[in-house]
Amino acid sequence: MAEKLKQMHWKKILLVGGILMVALVAGLCVQKLEGIEPTPLQPSEELKLSDFPKAFKSTLIIVGDNASEIEMQAANEIADYLENEAGNKPLIKEYSEISDEDKRNHNLIIVGTPKTNPFLEEVYALTNATRVTEEFPGEGKGVLEILRNPWDESKAMLLVEGWDEWEVENTENKQIDNANFSIKAKKYSSTLTITNTGDVVLTNIKIIKLTGFAKEGGAMHEEIIKLIPELEIGKNVNVSIPEISSCGFLPEEENITASNEGWIIVTCDQGVTKKMIFCEVIPHAIKWHPTHLEFFAFYILPPILAILLIIGVVRYISRIRGRKK
């Protein structure tokens, strides 16, 4: 019986490669044309999972120092796939081997869990990447997310992560075809606009309220507050979220402060994940930091105009008195 269980365990590990390849080939559907070099990413371009592997020409794969066999298997399968598609095999490095030059000079693929790969905490601190916790995305699930490399935004970064190693194994199954959507909201509003920007119909779109992230040492609380059964290609839907009506969205990252309340996370069956922050700070409580031009227009120009006006009035009165004499 023990021998049989051992064989089953190794079979499951060996299946990781097959699962990964099927998802990357059938799910992402991106082929490299012979003789055509991929163009560098532009700051204005929105990254999507279908940009893999074309945006990953020069790539470094990062695993934890104590990565499990499953995580190493996934990293090796990704490296083999990129070698076949891009013509060069990425180097796999452990977290302790990574230098600042490595972060800046490569497209990055991070494989693992927050417990096995500390590099994920660096990514969470510098980006709005979806944080994997025990509560989110849930048992047996993982997150496959693409975003810009925060050390060089002309490069890309792919996260293949879960809360435990088995969730990492399941992550590669998440992306189907060129599925994608965008989320937008006006500042301080409680209405979110979700637009299907991909090539497939999105199903079971979940809107999740995640709170507790700003409380150091506090437990994260996850609650599914909305469910959209289906969203057609090119269509959008406005979703009112009364659960944050007393707070409101903060779409601009520069307004993220310690007073933030939590995240609204949007996911779907096709594996795309997006999120936006909301907080309890009302508009008049936000400190305004004027630009140089605004500072001149609001603080320097009015006094100058007032002084010129006073001088003009005094001269006008003086001329009138002079005429009377």
Tell me about this structure.
The protein folds into two domains: 12-29 and 39-171, Chitobiase, domain 2; 181-285, Immunoglobulin-like, CATH 2.60.40. The protein has six helices and twelve strands. The protein has helices spanning 2-28, 69-86, 100-105, 119-126, 165-171, 292-324; strands at 59-63, 91-94, 107-112, 142-148, 156-162, 181-184, 191-196, 202-211, 221-231, 236-240, 260-267, 273-279. The strands form three sheets. It has a five-stranded mixed β-sheet. The protein has a four-stranded antiparallel β-sheet with strand order 9-8-11-12, with no helix packed on it. Helix 1 (2-28) packs parallel to helix 2. The chain is elongated.
Number of helices: 6
CATH architecture type of the largest domain: 2-Layer Sandwich
Order of secondary-structure elements: HEHEHEHEEHEEEEEEEH
Mean pLDDT: 75
Question: Which structural class do the helices and strands define?
Answer: alpha/beta
Q: How far apart are the first and last residues' alpha carbons, in Å?
A: 121 Å
Q: Indicate the CATH class of the largest domain.
A: Alpha Beta
The number of distinct β-strands equals 12
Strand content: 15-25%
Q: Give Rg in angstroms.
A: 26 Å
Q: Tell me the helix content.
A: 25-40%
Would you tell me which CATH topology of the largest domain applies? Chitobiase, domain 2
The number of distinct structural domains comes to 2
Question: What oligomeric state best describes the polypeptide chains here?
Answer: single chain
CATH superfamily of the largest domain: Chitobiase/beta-hexosaminidase domain 2-like
Low-pLDDT runs of 5+ residues are: 1-39, 172-176, 281-286
